Amino acid sequence: MSHALHPVVVLGAGCIGLTSAIRLRERGFPVVVLGAHLPGDALDATYASPIAGAHHLSFADDDDWRQRSLDGSTFDVLWRESEDADAAAKIGLLRLVQTEFYSKGEKHIRFLEQLPNFRVHSREERPSFADHCVSFTSLTIDPTFYLPHLVSRFLALGGIIQRVPVLASLEAALHHVPNATALVNCTGLGSRDLKEVLDKTVHPVRGQVLLLDAPWAHDFAAGDDERHPASSPRDLSLPGLPSALH
Question: Residue 61: which residues within 8 A CB-CB, separation 6 or more?
């Protein structure tokens, strides 16, 4: 395949890879996305994006200004894309009210205070099991619709997407695009096995996902046990909640 002179090569065609590719194209860089799995493929456990319950929620420490900035920029993009509720639903975006409950002396992270409609609930408002409670407006994403949206945007910007076999190393990407000027690794779980990376700290964090048809679910509540349902414009995803099914 013919590529532009000295493109940036993005490895991985999930939400992170495609979004990174779009940002690079918007800044004028020629970009080629390489992926063993592409949006529209049959479901595969090694391609997380199409089956993830995607919800914007920062976990940045209060003094981690770099991560807070990245999470804030991501939120701003999604917020702009979701201004028109009907148009947003077509690409899988939904604004919703999120309520967070805390116990055992835990408090909210400072990042949440910059989100729309943030407020701390009074003792009278919060349930008896919660020592602290906040709510704010956030966003949730249905990747089934958002991934094709990202592909369309990237291709409209003149980007190139190429299917390749699973790469054993970053160097292997140069066999497909030998004139690459830079490689951007967005392989997610694939980083466990890339020769130059071998990041064994990357691993799936959920088990089975139960998907419910619940278009009425426009509120989201989560406790400090880290089990977070994710509502989309059409469905409600319950990740890793076996006890709820007994």
Answer: 67, 109
Is residue 15 within 8 A of residue 174, CB to CB? The reply is no
Retrieve residue 126's tokens.
């919060």
Which two tokens mark 50? Answer: 């199409």
User: How far apart, in whole angstroms, are the C-alpha atoms of residue 112 and residue 171?
Assistant: 40
The DSSP secondary structure of 96-123, one letter per residue, reads EEEEEEE-TT----GGGGGSTT-EEPPT
With tokens 């991985």, the residue in question is: 12
Tokens linked to 99? 């309520």
What lies within 8 Å, CB to CB, of 234 at 6+ separation is 142, 213, 215
> In the chain, what is the greatest distance between 2 CA atoms, to the nearest angstrom?
65
- What percent of the chain stands above pLDDT 90? 60
pTM of the entire structure? Answer: 0.82
Q: Which of 73-82, 175-184, 212-221 shows the lowest per-residue confidence on average (mean pLDDT)? A: 212-221
pLDDT for residue 244? 38
Confidence (pLDDT) at 91: 94
Helix ranges, the chain (H): 15-26, 65-81, 85-90, 143-156, 170-176
d(CA 96, CA 76): 15
